[in-house]
Amino acid sequence: MFRARDGGLLSGEELAGALCVSRTAVWKHVKNLRSKGYRIESVPSRGYRLLSFPDVLCEAELSSGLRPKRIGRRIICVEETDSTNQLAFRAAEEGAEDGTVVLADLQTGGKGRLGRRWESPPGVNLYCSVILRPPILPLNAPQLTFLSAVAVARAIEESTSLSPRIKWPNDILINGRKVAGLLNEMSAETDTIHWLVLGIGVNINMSREQFPDDLRHPATSLLLETDSPVSRVTFTRSLISLLDVLYDVFLGNGFDPIREEWLARSTIQGKKVRVATGEIDMEGTVTGIDPDGALILCLRDGVLHRVLAGDVTIM
Ligand code: BT5
């Protein structure tokens, strides 16, 4: 109701009437909101006015103004967890519906790929995981990594004047530095996906001192790139709504529109790269990505080679 009033006054009587509670209960709720960082002014004998609100990720703030078809119909926020991907897996096991979003303010065991760690300090960033139950074959699951990369890039553009680029398979870069990482995991049988978890970590207001010295690649945050703090609530709301729109496009029109946008935003299309797959290193020119998300490399001898996973360095 405060949001709808847009900074205007709301009388205690009006709030009490609409919520079917006493005016004393209204006062208690206002006190509770204040303790959470909401600045609410009381104007004697006229009512209350919302002056400002904290940048705290909570269900009520995030769902305000969202009209999701699937992603964001249910949002679960916790202060602390090991990893939002783990939390999402547990929720999916218990039957959480398609489109459920899980967020934490702090991760004690944030995960990167291949057992790597994702730095996840509290109060500054976004750590979220989306549970999907898409009607696609497990081998096409990587397509949704591309979908989440496009959504993160668009959300950064909506919230800042920056121009993010995507690096295969799961990095979002600004001026060559990593601002976001994606980790998608699934539970599946040979031909059925039970559920898939899109894990998304975005460095929003992380300061220089909060990055460890030993990161594998240069890293950054939206704050460091723009010199001004970005609202986590506004960013996250925009990301959820973009994921919802793109997922709807994906279910209706397939992977092609997502792939085209991904390629247009990619740093590596047409570039000479080295790919470390864990077993061997290869060099070649990137000619595209195929329908199951593999990178297509044209090797020195002209042979086309598909790479399903690995770390890419542009040469
Ligand atoms: C990734 O792995 O980039 C995937 C990161 C996914 C994180 C999200 S947060 C929400 C969800 N819940 C989780 O537990 N995870 C997901 P990878 O490409 O392997 O990159 C990991 C490497 O990036 C590390 O080895 C570090 O060198 C570096 N790194 C760690 N934390 C970083 C950060 N906050 N920003 C930039 N680089 C970081």
Walkthrough of the structure:
With 315 residues, the protein is an alpha+beta fold. The chain contains nine helices and 14 strands. It has helices spanning 2-5, 12-19, 23-35, 59-63, 84-93, 143-159, 222-226, 232-253, 256-264, and strands at residues 39-43, 47-52, 75-81, 100-107, 126-132, 165-167, 171-174, 177-188, 193-202, 272-276, 281-289, 295-299, 304-307, 311-314. The strands form three sheets. Strands 3-4-5-9-8-7-6 form a seven-stranded mixed beta sheet, sandwiched between helices. Strand 10 (272-276) and strand 11 (281-289) form a beta hairpin. The longest helix is centred in the last third of the chain and has 22 residues, at 232-253. It is elongated. Residues 83-85, 107, 110-114, 116-119, 127-129, 170, 178, 181-183, 199-201, 203, 215-216, 219 line the site of biotinyl-5-AMP.
Number of strands: 14
Tell me the radius of gyration.
Answer: 22 Å
| SSE-based structural type | alpha+beta
Tell me roughly what share of residues is in helical segments.
Answer: 25-40%
Which H/E pattern describes the elements?
HHHEEHEHEEHEEEEHHHEEEEE
Oligomer: single chain
Numbering strands along the chain, what is their spatial order in the largest sheet?
Answer: 3-4-5-9-8-7-6
Distance between the termini: 55 Å
Q: Give a quick account of the main beta sheet: strands, pairing sense, barrel closure.
A: 7 strands, mixed
Average predicted local confidence, pLDDT: 94
Global morphology:
elongated
Poorly predicted residue ranges: none
Strand content: 25-35%
The number of helical segments is 9
Bound ligands: biotinyl-5-AMP
